[in-house]
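I am still getting used to backbone structure tokens and would like to learn alongside you. Would you supply a protein for us yourself, any chain you care to pick? Start from the sequence, derive the backbone structure tokens from it, and show both lines together. Go ahead whenever you are ready, and we will take it from there.
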Amino acid sequence: MKTLILKGSVLALSLMLAWSCIKPDQTSTLTVSPVTISFSATAGEKTFTVKSTESWTVEKPADAGWLTVYPDKFIAGTTPVTIQAQPLPSSSTRSAILTVRSSAGQTKDIYVEQQNILDPNAYLSFYGEVGSFVIVNPRDNNILKFMINTNVPNWTPSVSEGDGDWLTYERVVDTLFVSVADIPSAAGRSGNIIASAGGSLQISVEISQLGLQEFGAPTADFVLSIPDSAGTELAFSKVYRNQARMTMLYIGASWCPDCHNFLPKVKELYEEFHPYGLNVYGVFLETEGDEEAYLNYIKENGLEDIDSATGKKIWWESRPVFTPPGPWPAVKENEFTRLFYGDALFTDEVSNYVPAFILVDNGGRIKKTFTANYRLRTEGEIFSLYHSLESYIERQLNCCQ
């Protein structure tokens, strides 16, 4: 009997010891708080807490680059996590879902939203008197400087869509240094420099660059000479500053029938308006190898004739520009034509080549251009252009009534 009791006691003790060696059930846990985070339009920083019995990571969708999470992974325990949002780029709400995943496979989602709600204490403006637009000349390489007055540290600069190839900026603390490339065309262009603190809190200034032929654009000075003729260098500026109220830059060519047909009308304009302050500078676009043909043309048309009474030339000064022969339209482009057309002749953006008439004031600024693709083969066509030129010059010089 005692033996049976002893055996039973040993068995019970063994069972108790075996039970004590079994580990209790340890269930993995993962909690996140809060699970919804809202940001205003300006850049911000908030915190959420991860409690986990396992190590964990934060998964961010590919389109949530506007959010920064740190740390984005950690070991078990209670961990505060910082989440930063960049300024809202527009007035539209954006959102993202972040997923916290434990090594045990548990997940918790956090919904993050940024709305166009402005902080009432946030401000953003330009220092000084900055208007809604700035006019820039065609070849103005001066750096534009805009100082930003704001209490939003993470404001962002940008350029209007499609204008980054000619309008660039560098941000230095709270100052924007803006560079404007030389314009390559007769027509002007405009773009915007934008500073945004988020959502509707943004400021901008329009950069309006004058085209090479736009009203008020300063022309580039140039100096041309007659080949193999010393002392014939003539600057454009010398002509429009020489007691001129207005100067016509007449662009023609000896090989151009429309130019030849209209040359007598240019002489008429010169005779009529030169006494009232109109000067003319003639530029003939010629082909290398045809120098003799050009000189003969000038002589045959009396452009070198001298007034026997005064000993001075009867007509205006003209100079040639010789371009190597080549394929069309490359033959139209040279250093001279780029001053007034940029690349437009080469790209055929502008079809007119010669004749062309560019009128400038006594400071060399564009007043008016007559650069259409003129066909001057009939009396009616010739008179129409002549009448347009005459009427404009007469109004500008306020003469000859």
In short: The first strand starts at residue 30 and ends at 33. Confidence is low (pLDDT under 50) at residues 1-13, 15-25. The chain has three domains: 30-114, 124-209, 223-397.
